């Protein structure tokens, strides 16, 4: 299994007002760069998927890829873009992570790869367990077989937009990650979330 990584940074940041949340600085590093550095430690090659024209996206030392499926149809377009890029460089799988999630697990790729039987064609999706024992999946954190790229393009053409709607028929393996002392898939959507991220960074990483 040869895995490369792509960071999904295609959101519109509507809950951040007019600010591109991926470019907000958390301890002198943008949220985007936090994701780049974290993923670089786990795979040999990383790219960013965004439809933004901001120059800052070009300054992270990795390729920047626009959606290969037009129309701003959501995260599945980023998954497809990642699959097609991975195929072009000879990878069998692509791992996707969200750009606004600065603390995702540093063993994400290893755990996801371990969970997938080699040659199964299944998809691994990260999940965490909440306080009441209920599991929550994180569909933008997936390990995707590149061989499914044509199937995904057809699905998008037919109007499929939900990640799990497309993934489930191919077989999903849920991979659980520890949610203590906080959920590592905590993502920044609002100014209040950014304040929380600043606190978490100080308490657990600095």
Describe this structure in words.
It is a single chain. The chain has helices at 31-40, 75-88, 108-115, 149-157, 163-167, 191-204, and strands spanning 3-8, 25-26, 29-30, 46-49, 64-65, 93-98, 123-129, 135-145, 172-177. The chain has a seven-stranded mixed β-sheet with strand order 5-4-1-6-8-7-9, with helices on both faces. It has a two-stranded antiparallel ribbon with strand order 2-3. Strand 2 and strand 3 form a beta hairpin. The model has no long low-confidence stretch (mean pLDDT 93). The radius of gyration is 16 Å and the shape is globular. The chain is α/β, with parallel strands linked by helices and 206 residues long. 39% of the residues are buried.
Salient structural properties:
206 residues, alpha/beta, Spore Coat Polysaccharide Biosynthesis Protein SpsA, Chain A, seven-stranded mixed β-sheet, two-stranded antiparallel ribbon, 6 helices, 29% helix, globular
């Amino acid at each position: 299994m040869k895995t490369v990584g792509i960071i999904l940074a295609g959101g519109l940041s509507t809950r951040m007002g007019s600010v591109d949340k991926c470019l907000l600085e958390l301890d002198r590093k943008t949220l985007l760069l936090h994701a780049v550095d974290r993923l670089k430690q786990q795979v040999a090659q990383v790219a960013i998927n965004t439809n933004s024209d901001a120059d800052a996206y070009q300054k992270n030392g990795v390729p920047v890829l626009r959606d290969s499926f037009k129309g701003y149809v959501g995260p599945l377009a980023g998954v497809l873009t990642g699959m097609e890029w991975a195929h072009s460089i000879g990878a069998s799988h692509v791992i996707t992570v969200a750009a606004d999630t600065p603390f995702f697990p540093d063993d994400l790729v290893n755990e996801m790869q371990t969970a997938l039987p080699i040659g199964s064609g299944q998809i691994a999706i990260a999940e965490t367990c909440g306080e009441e024992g209920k599991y929550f999946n994180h569909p933008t954190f997936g390990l995707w077989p590149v061989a499914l790229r044509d199937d995904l393009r057809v699905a998008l053409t037919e109007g499929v937009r939900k990640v799990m709607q497309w993934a489930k028929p191919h077989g999903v393996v849920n991979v659980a990650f520890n949610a203590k002392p906080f959920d590592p898939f905590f993502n920044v959507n609002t100014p209040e979330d950014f304040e929380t991220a600043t606190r978490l960074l100080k308490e657990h990483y600095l």
